[in-house]
Amino acid sequence: MIGCGYLGAVHAASMAQLGHEVVGVDVDEPKIAMLAAGRTPFFEPGFEELLAESLASGRLRFTTDFGDAAGARVHFVCVGTPQKRGEYAADLRYVESAVESLIGVLAAGELVVGKSTVPVGTAARLAELVGDKVPGAMLAWNPEFLREGFAVQDTVHPDRLVYGLPDENADTAHALLDEVYATIVAAETPKVVTDYATAEMVKTAANSFLATKISFINAMAELCEATGADVKQLADAIGHDDRIGRKFLNAGLGFGGGCLPKDIRAFMARAGELGADQALTFLREVDNINMRRRIRMVELAREVLDGSLLGKRVAVLGAAFKPESDDIRDSPALNVAAQLQLQGATVVLTDPAAIENCRKHWPQIDYADTAEEAARGADAVLLLTEWRQFRELDPVAFGKIVRQKRVLDGRNALDRDVWEAAGWSYRALGRRHAS
Ligand code: UGA
């Protein structure tokens, strides 16, 4: 397994769990040292236990030495493809360097399997490189659909398998992948066997669809704000139509993280290179709608705080880009918290898992260990990541800690009636507010 981040580390431990002998390789020495010692470098429910079991089985080890990848029959590439600085395109340097390093240890008959999210056309280019340098070695593209927070479950029980296979040796590559995923295949998991380009596009299309769905409901939220309609009820009502479905129709602060935002941008950039940019111009709007929600949230806070953020004490609940994660990459919550602080508010931020990561990026914000501590003396409380412990707060007890009972629900996650009954003024994106 080349690359031991959120994807690779979980995949490595899961594959060991499925009975394979796995070696995880990464250039990041401290990360490898932690994983080898059974400590998790990031927060992911269930991962610590899985890691401990897999290490104890003797089938999993970690190393920084690429040479240890020699002799494996299957080499997974799980490195990141972040957005390039100052551009929309994906930065492929880690994928390229992983494949180049692999070429040094690869032998005929072995299979390189790309899992990283890459621009369409990458697999064909890498396959040519691999084939030229190591005749008889093969490459397949096998995108990953795991969600952070559910990474273990999604890896061991994925909802589908997608194999992008080479024209030559397709049957051999197919059989090898089936062997790796034997238990998943045996569970009759739907499998789509296709070419490289389709496999690559399945991933970017899926993430673009999810981003579009979220921005659609957030665009409706903007309209609800203009008309006095209620976006939550609207989502419930349209979601009953199973052609639409209720999932991913939660209006609020919008999407963030290390995937959706950069994937839609890289997809647009790639479409431009292919002369098909018109096909994806709508994704620019999806991106715009999404970013506008963060600005709106800051405006709403200012409005609620009598028109000025200066000197106001604001408790922010949540910093991770979603619950059950410590990931703050492009986090809408952290983005709003930072804006509030930059615009003169005194922000006290709490998150069950992400505070350590936040501190490194925003040392000027105050951090608290609990929601109660963050809310002490607050002029307003903002719920920005819908962790269960925040959703389950008791508004009566919580109301005794704050200076002003004003709550802004950035994720439409609180029970509005209960909070209002406890004397709170409740505001949320896309919802009517009691005047
Ligand atoms: C996403 C995809 O869901 C995975 O299938 C994919 O494998 C992964 O990207 C990836 O490319 O690696 P993830 O980034 O973990 O997974 O998070 P999601 O659960 O998709 O949530 C993304 C963002 O959308 C979060 O900030 C979340 O708060 C937001 N969201 C989600 C909403 O604002 N509303 C919703 O209704 C749902």
UniProtKB/TrEMBL annotation:
Organism of provenance: Pseudonocardia ailaonensis
Record bears the keyword Transport: no
Keyword Plastid attached: no
SUPFAM superfamilies linked: 6-phosphogluconate dehydrogenase C-terminal domain-like, NAD(P)-binding Rossmann-fold domains, UDP-glucose/GDP-mannose dehydrogenase C-terminal domain
Residues annotated as domain UDP-glucose/GDP-mannose dehydrogenase C-terminal: 315-416
Broad EC category: oxidoreductase
Superkingdom of this protein's organism: Bacteria
One Pfam short name: UDPG_MGDP_dh_N
Keywords, comma-separated and alphabetical: NAD, Oxidoreductase
Annotated EC: 1.1.1.22
Family as reported in the entry's similarity comment: Belongs to the UDP-glucose/GDP-mannose dehydrogenase family.
Protein name: UDP-glucose 6-dehydrogenase
Reaction equation(s) it catalyzes: UDP-alpha-D-glucose + 2 NAD(+) + H2O = UDP-alpha-D-glucuronate + 2 NADH + 3 H(+)
Protein's pathway: Nucleotide-sugar biosynthesis; UDP-alpha-D-glucuronate biosynthesis; UDP-alpha-D-glucuronate from UDP-alpha-D-glucose: step 1/1
